[in-house]
TrEMBL record:
Signal peptide: none
Keywords: Transit peptide
SUPFAM superfamilies assigned to the protein according to its UniProt record, in alphabetical order: Aminomethyltransferase beta-barrel domain, Folate-binding domain
Native organism: Azoarcus indigens
Protein name: GCVT N-terminal domain-containing protein
Classification via InterPro entries: GcvT/YgfZ_C, GCVT_N, TrmE/GcvT-like, YgfZ/GCV_T_CS, YgfZ/GcvT
Biological processes per GO annotation: iron-sulfur cluster assembly
Domain GCVT N-terminal: from-to ranges: 24-230
Length: 345
């Protein structure tokens, strides 16, 4: 175990590693209730980090991803997708420049294979890629008082969404208002997390962060949903994860055709289900207009503070407009459509 995980264990954390690392300090249902009432600090063990280093890091990543990495300024961050040649997302990525290259954050369960696959494209490029998950700890901060807590903890505060600030070895990326991701060397993570708690944050586990990102409409591609979605199905062009003016990249033709020919029939929505076993990401959804055929899939799922669960779900737009969505089978439990914090095209 690392000093970071030793510290978390001393704090009362338990980690389930059956599929991807899931951390909790108590019952997930209790933690999400705390998360809507207070500002919470969350060890993001379910995310991993790949580091790209070298003088050609920007053009190398630019040629592989859906966004314009070449024009990304030092103080910014951006969403990106990495796709198959058929335009299906292999990974959703948060990317930012740092030092002599870039950091890429993705779901921990796909990071080792993703780092290996990206390395296959290096060839003669002056860049080196490595899974840096063991060297860099990621911490989430979510809640109305997040900005004030960062100040009290002596940590940098980015000015706006998808901007970053770094000081004393701690990098803070602002995803949206009241939602921040911190990256810090693993051996300094305990001190950073402790400073957030001393500043007034409540500790919480993975479910609290997943609920916050679901409510923010920010999807995460995991092993269960790789190659299921084109970027626009996950609203990636809405959250700023696709640049339609940049050059070619794997899957670019499909992504562009989907955009300009108006062939997108599925979108990501936010849904809620009643109490019961928490469904898995990738679970099929059904609607009367598609009969026995799947009308969509769950993307990310978290317990709801009201009971039951909330989720991001990719659905046939016609099914969403009709409003009758069933989980697991055509006669399965009904889901309720909820609002996203942004408008869909």
């Amino acid at each position: 175990m690392t000093t970071w995980t030793d510290y978390l264990a001393q704090q009362g954390a338990s980690v389930d590693t059956d599929n991807r690392p899931t951390l909790r300090f108590g019952a997930a249902a209790d933690e999400v209730r705390v998360a809507v009432e207070q500002t919470v600090a969350v060890p993001l063990l379910h995310l991993g980090l790949i580091r790209s280093v070298g003088p050609e890091s920007a053009p190398f990543l630019h040629n592989l991803f859906s966004n314009d990495v070449n024009k990304l300024a030092a103080g910014q961050a951006q969403w990106n997708s990495f796709n198959t040649p058929k335009g299906r997302m292999l990974a959703s990525l948060l990317l930012w420049p740092e030092g002599e290259g870039h950091a890429l954050v993705a779901s921990a369960d796909i990071v080792p294979a993703l780092a290996k696959k990206l390395s296959m494209y290096v060839l003669r490029s002056k860049v080196k890629l490595a899974d840096a998950s063991a060297d860099t700890a990621l911490i989430g901060l979510s809640g109305a008082n997040a900005a004030a807590l960062l100040g009290r903890a002596g940590l940098p505060l980015p000015e706006g969404s998808l901007q970053q600030a770094e000081a004393n070895g701690v990098r803070v990326v602002r995803l949206q208002d009241d939602l921040y991701l911190l990256a810090v060397a693993t051996d300094a993570a305990a001190a950073t997390f402790g400073a957030l708690l001393e500043a007034g944050a409540a500790r919480a586990g993975t479910a609290a962060w997943e609920l916050a990102t679901i409510r923010a409409g920010l999807p995460l591609v995991t092993a269960a949903t790789q190659e299921e979605f084109v970027a626009q199905m996950l609203n990636y062009e809405v959250i700023g994860g696709v640049n339609f003016k940049k050059g070619c990249y794997p899957g670019q033709e499909i992504v562009a055709r989907t955009q300009y020919l108006g062939k997108l029939k599925k979108r990501m929505y936010r849904v809620a289900g009643e109490a019961g076993a928490l469904p898995a990401a990738g679970s099929d959804l059904y609607a009367p207009d598609f009969g026995d055929q799947s009308a969509g899939k769950l993307v990310n799922v978290a317990p709801s503070p009201a009971g039951g669960f909330e989720a991001l779900a990719v659905l046939q737009s016609s099914s969403a407009e009709a409003g009758e969505i069933h989980l697991g089978s055509p006669s399965g439990p009904l889901l309720k459509l909820l609002e996203l914090p942004y408008a869909l095209p």
